[in-house]
Specification:
Layout: H1 3-6, E1 17-21, E2 28-32, E3 37-40, E4 48-52, E5 59-63, H2 66-74, E6 78-81
Parallel strand pairs: 3-6
Antiparallel strand pairs: 1-2, 3-4, 4-5
Length: 86
């Protein structure tokens, strides 16, 4: 089987982008999945996503509910699972 035959019928994959905003500079922009990080903790207080604002350089951290977690993980965002302390 040739490479062309193996990939016949496959479509080009479009990179996933996420709309975000910066609370510091009020900038609105789109970020690739690689620009975001997701931390999943034991509670809603310890589950959040973060990124660096491309306009002002501020470190931004925002809470992530179940729907946001689903969207980010489905879009390929790097995820860190936080373990609770005993």
């Amino acid at each position: 089987m040739t490479v062309a035959a193996a990939f016949a019928g496959m479509r080009r994959v479009v990179p996933v982008v996420f709309k975000a905003g910066c609370p510091d500079c009020r900038g609105r922009f789109e970020l690739a999945a690689s620009a975001l990080r997701l931390a999943i903790g034991a509670s809603s207080r310890t589950t959040f996503y973060s990124f660096t604002c491309p306009e002002c350089g501020a470190a931004v951290r925002k809470p992530a509910g179940e729907r946001i977690v689903e969207l980010l993980t489905g879009g390929g965002v790097s995820t860190l699972r936080l373990h609770p302390t005993v």
